[in-house]
Amino acid sequence: MTGASPHIPVLLAEVLDALAIVPGERHVDGTFGAGGYSRAMAEAGALVFAIDRDPDAIAGGQAVVAASEGRITLVQGDYSRMAALLAEAGISEVHGVTLDIGVSSMQLDRADRGFSFQNDGPLDMRMSQSGQTAAEWLNTADEAEIADVLYIYGEERQSRRVARAIVAARPLARTGELAAVVRRALGYRPGQPKDPSTRSFQAIRIFLNQELAELQAGLDAAEAVLAPGGRLAIVSFHSLEDRIVKQFLRERSGSEAGGSRHRPATVATRAATFRPPARAVRGGPEEIARNPRARSATLRSAVRTNAPAWNLTQGATA
Fold first, then answer.
1. Segments of the chain assigned to CATH 1.10.150.170
2. What is the mean pLDDT of each run of 10 residues along the chain (318 residues)?
């Protein structure tokens, strides 16, 4: 294969180790992005069924698809619908599923997409480029709803103060305007190690794109399409995502049956659909120096058993 991905995939070697690709196997890349994972998976011998909800990723990925010489199929859609999308392509099960959760480098780097507080652009934040924009929501939602979103999805402890400032500053149309409002509300001083608007931008983006619900549904879908012995590899970038993945793998591998003094023991009524997950992997100093996005990345992986999927109907049709 020829051609190159414009961005460095996070934990690429570790993801490939977790997927343990055997040439000729079929794998799903549910978050194609710039195509880095798909390209490497195809080079390892996989037939890759790649998915992305972003029309720009689909258009930009055509060169990667062409260079794969038929080993990558790229479709637009939500990865939570991977079972239905695979079925439409005549595929019933796969040997691996990988997901790189959250906003992509391509989306962050383009000011016109409105994801970044570092580059002024339209206050958009829509991954699929359809539906309500961040500006439309912020300019119409009531103060309490905005505060709840900032607190739940951004873990912003001063969410009420920030929400009050946002409502007072409406209408907002630009990312630079929103960032300035949040900074003023939280008393930001240039030179601080972390921009306080980070949490608010994260919260609004996650809420607007329903990212956590998509992740939970995507995990169920992956469970439904993985063949016995299939491998699941998930890269997440903050505690909200990682908590969902960790809980899912603990539950589906039967690792929680013993309970604790804080949580009663559960009775295992369904067979484990995954073997006990591998130890979580995080980026080392060399990768972080080469790719700063790896600083917050966590890889969790597990191998599918032959037990029936717990949410077979939901996973197959979501």
1. 109-209
2. 58 97 98 96 98 95 97 98 97 97 75 83 94 97 98 97 98 97 92 88 96 97 98 95 97 72 56 97 88 88 97 47
Q: Are 52 and 240 in contact (CB under 8 A)?
A: no
* Residue whose C-alpha is closest to residue 127's, from 62, 6, 32, 63: 32
Answer whether 241's CB lies under 8 Å from 102's CB: yes
Report domain 109-209's class: mainly alpha
Q: Alpha carbon 148 to chain centroid distance?
A: 22
Q: Under CATH, which number does the domain 12-106+211-317 receive?
A: 3.40.50.150
Contact 244, 218 (CB under 8 A): no
As given in the structure block, the two tokens for residue 135 are 């500006």
pTM of the model: 0.90
